[in-house]
Amino acid sequence: DSVADQVYPAAVILTVDTPKTGGVNVGAWLAVSFAPCSEVMPSCSDNIPDYDALIIGAGLSGMYQLHVLREQGFRAHVLEAGSGVGGTWYWNRYPGARFDSESWSYGYSFSAELLEEWDWSEHFAGQPEVERYCNHVADKFDLRRDISFSTRVAWARFEEESCSWRVGTAAGREFRARFLVTAIGLLSAPTMPRFEGVESFSGQWAHTGLWPKEGINFDGKRVAVIGTGASGVQTIQEVAKSAARLTVFQRRPNWCTPLHNGPISEAEMDAIRTRYDEIFELCKQTTACFVHSVDSRGTFEVTPEEREAFWEERYAGQGFGIWQGNFRDMLKDREANQMMSAFVADKIRARVNDPATAELLIPKDHGFGTRRVPQETHYYEVYNQPNVELVSMLEAPIERVTPTGLRTRDRDYAFDVIIYATGFDAVTGSFDRIDFRGAGDVTLKDKWAEGPRTLVGVMVDQFPNLFMIMGPHAALGNNPRSIEYNVEWVRDCLVHARSTGAQRLEAKAEAVEAWANFVHEKAQGLLSNEIDSWMTGVNMNVAGRKHRRLVRYAGTAPEYRARCDAIAAGGYEELQQS
Ligand code: N01
C-alpha cells in the first residue's frame, strides 16, 4: 500500500528505497535519492526511525516545511513539544493574545484554495482564531500523520560517519535524518524573573508564553501582571475587564500605539480576497513584510503642520503604520525620533487622567520605535479604572514572591493570581535549550558564545545538513512572509542536493563571515542599537545576556531575499557540497 504514509525503520526503508526498484510503483516517495543512513553505515540499522528530513517544531514554519518537503517526495517528519500545532499560537494563549500584523497579510499565501476558503473575523485576529487556523491548515494538508506530538527534542548530534543527524527527545526516544530543519521560533524560550520564592506562592501563577490550556478565571480576583512588553500590554487590557483588582508591575515603560482592530464583515472579506495578490506583492516590497511602507520623506522635509497631520493620520491608522510607515529617518535621526516621541508622549498624557501615572507610562530611556512597539486597545485608559494600579519597579523593585503575593521594597501585596509577562530568551534561547553538536562535536552554544553567526540565518558552518527557519540574522517582521520564503529556499536547496547527489551540505566559513559583515553593515546608525531589549539580545533574567549583541538582521527583506536568491542561482557556491 502507500509506503509514503508510514514511518519505517531504516532496515525496512533499505528494502524499498534503492535504485533497483526504479521509483516506479511507489510514486513520489521513491523520488528520494538520499541513501538511507543504514546504507552508508551498516551499524546504523538500529531501528531508529530514519528520515530524509526531521523538522523540529510544528508552528507555522514547521508545518509548511513538512508540506513542501512531502510535496517533493522527501520522507519528512516533525517533532513537536506541544500536543497540538501552532507553535507561538499554541503556547501563547494568554488573555488578549492577538495578531499585530493584519490577519489577511499574515496567513499563508501558498495555497489559493486555503485563501479562498478561510475567513478572518477581525483585522487582527485573536489567539483562539489563529490556533483554529493552524489546525485547519494541519487538517487540510493532512500534516498530523507526519508529526510526533508531545515530543520535546533535547539533543541533536551530527554523525560524520553516516552523514546524518541523530536526534534525541527528553523522553529518551531517538530519530535520525539526513537533514535537520529547526522551526523552533525566535520567541519561544520563556524567561522568568529571578525572584526568590516564585514556587512558594499559594495562588495561581503562569507565564504568558506557557499559558495553561484550561485558562485562568480572573472574576473577582486580585491579579498582578509583571511586565509591560507586547504580551503584558495585551494581557493587562483584558484582565482589567474582570479582575477585582489589577496591579501592574512595570520596570521600563514602552511606547504603545493603538491597534485599531475591528471586525471584518462578509463583504469586506470578499473584497480582501480579491486583493490577495496585491497584498502579498506589497508585503514583498516593504522593509519588514508588513503592509506598511516607510514614507520616503524626511521628518524635516515637510512643514510642521504637514508633519503633525501625518502623525495624526498614522496614530489613527491600523496596526504598525505608525512604526513601519513613518518618515524614513525616524529610527535613525535623533532629533526626528525625539519629535516623534514627544508626539506620542502627548497622546499618553491626553489619555491618562492622573498626570503622575501618565508620566510613569512615558518612556524616558528610549525613543519611539527603538524597541518593539506594543499595539494596544484602550491600554492607557485601563489606568483610569478604579480597579487598576500601576507600580513602578524602578521606584519600588520587587524583592521576592511570598506565599500570599509579592513584596516590593515598599510593601507587601496580596494576590490570587500572578502573571509573568516577562518575555523570552529571544532568537538564540530556543537553540540553547537543545544540545546541538555539529561536526567534530562542536556545540552550537559554544559556537555562538560571542553572538550568533549564520549564512543568511539558515545555515551555520561546522553544522552540516542543519537548516534553520527564522534563525538568527534572517529577515524578521511579518513573520509568515519570511517563513514561506525561507521554507521554500530550504526545500530548493534539498532538491538541488538530491539532483546533484550531494549528501552533505555545509556553509563555508567565509560565506558566514560575509553574511555577518553584511548584517553589521545594515545595522549601522540605528538608534535601536543603543537600547537594551530582546532585539539587541539583552535579557537580564538569563545569565550571559547582559550585553548587547547583534541578533537581528536590520536590513530590508527585499535585500535579504536578493542575497538568498543569488546563492541559489549561483548553484549554492557558499556551501561545501559532497
Ligand atoms: O516580552 P518583552 P513580551 N523584573 O521582552 C519585563 C512578540 N509578541 O513577551 O523592559 C521586572 O517585550 C520587561 O521589563 P524591561 C513581540 O515581538 C508579539 O512582551 O526589561 N520586569 C518587559 O516589560 C514582542 O516584542 C505579539 O524593563 C521584568 C517585559 O517584562 C516579543 O514577542 C504579542 C523582568 C518583557 O517584555 C516579546 O514580547 C506578544 C524582571 N525580572 C509578543 N523581566 C503579537 O501581537 C522582564 N521584565 C503578535
Bound molecules: 3-acetylpyridine adenine dinucleotide
Which shape, going by the Cα principal axes?
Answer: globular
Q: What class, by secondary structure content?
A: alpha/beta
The biggest beta sheet reads: 8 strands, mixed
What is the terminal separation in angstroms?
A: 34 Å
Mean pLDDT: 93
What is the gyration radius calculated from CA atoms? 25 Å
Query: Helical amount among residues, as a percent range?
Result: 25-40%
Number of strands: 20
Estimate what percentage of residues fall within beta strands: 15-25%
Q: Which spans of ≥5 residues are poorly predicted at pLDDT below 50? A: 1-33
Q: How many helices?
A: 20
Quick overview:
The chain is α/β, with parallel strands linked by helices and 578 residues long.
Structure notes:
The chain has 578 residues and is an alpha/beta fold. The radius of gyration is 25 Å and the shape is globular. Strands 1, 2, 3, 4, 5, 6, 17 and 18 form an eight-stranded mixed beta sheet that branches. Strand 1 (50-56), helix 3 and strand 2 form a beta-alpha-beta unit. It has helices spanning 10-16, 37-40, 60-71, 88-91, 103-106, 112-117, 127-140, 230-239, 266-274, 276-285, 304-316, 321-324, 334-351, 355-361, 379-382, 429-432, 444-447, 479-500, 509-523, 557-569; strands at residues 50-56, 76-79, 147-148, 153-159, 164-169, 174-182, 204-207, 222-226, 245-250, 257-258, 375-376, 388-392, 398-402, 405-408, 412-414, 417-420, 435-437, 466-468, 505-507, 575-577. Helices cover 32% and strands 15% of the residues. The model is unreliable at 1-33 (pLDDT under 50). The protein is built from 20 helices and 20 strands. Helix 3 runs parallel beside helix 18 (479-500) and helix 18 (479-500) packs parallel to helix 20. The structure holds 3-acetylpyridine adenine dinucleotide (N01). 3-acetylpyridine adenine dinucleotide (N01) binds at residues 98-100, 187, 193, 208, 226-232, 234, 251-252, 372, 393, 421-424, 534, 541.
